[in-house]
Amino acid sequence: MSRGINKVILIGNLGRDPELSFTPSGMAVCKLNMATTESRKRDDGTWEDITEWHRITVWGKTGESLGQNASKGSQLYIEGRIHYDSYEKDGIKRYTTEIVARTVRILGRREDSAGGAGGGSGGGRNDGGYSNSPSPVDQHGGDGGDIEDDLPF
């Protein structure tokens, strides 16, 4: 019997390039800032976009691969857990909230284009600069994929 569930699923875009570093023992750690946006209807009937920013940490080979393959603007699917922490700085206790990712998929990439908005001819992509096919990033420490792949429906 489970004592509780701590699960978060986010789909959003990176606000800046991932920050990849390594612990003294050689473990990769990748820090991300990702934005999610949802539209809400105001009382007057107009719509407004509400953007939330999330701090995300990805460890191990998954983090290393993400740090090498994602960039500012990349659309990601993140599955993980919420982690709360605190520390003291200058005698003041501070609190942090982050998402520790377990599964990451790169859903799309914004291509850097020297020509601006794109849309030209010559064999270029016609999808607005995003790839249509999801790109898995070494999930669950490389165990071969999602559990959902085994479901019959």
Find the structural class using helix and strand composition. mainly beta
Q: Could you estimate the helical fraction of the residues in percent?
A: under 10%
Counted beta strands: 7
Q: What string gives the helices and strands in order? A: EEEEHEEE
Low-confidence stretches: 112-153
Radius of gyration: 18 Å
The geometry reads as globular
Major β-sheet profile? 5 strands, mixed, barrel
| Span of the ends, CA to CA | 26 Å
Mean pLDDT across all amino acids: 78
User: How many helices in DSSP terms?
Assistant: 1
Furnish the topology, listing elements before pairings.
Blueprint: E1 8-14, E2 19-22, E3 28-41, E4 47-59, H1 60-69, E5 75-89, E6 92-108, E7 135-137
Parallel strand pairs: 4-6
Antiparallel strand pairs: 1-3, 1-5, 2-3, 3-4, 5-6, 6-7
Tell me what you see in this structure.
This protein has 1 helix and 7 strands; from the N terminus they run E-E-E-E-H-E-E-E. The protein is mainly beta. Strands 1-3-4-6-5 form a 5-stranded mixed barrel. The longest helix is centred in the middle third of the chain and has 10 residues, at 60-69.
Write out key terms for the chains shown.
about 50% strand; disordered C terminus; about 150 residues; 7 strands; 1 helix; five-stranded mixed beta barrel; mainly beta
Please summarize what this structure is:
The chain is mainly beta and 153 residues long. It contains one helix and seven strands; from the N terminus they run E-E-E-E-H-E-E-E. It has one helix at residues 60-69; strands at residues 8-14, 19-22, 28-41, 47-59, 75-89, 92-108, 135-137.
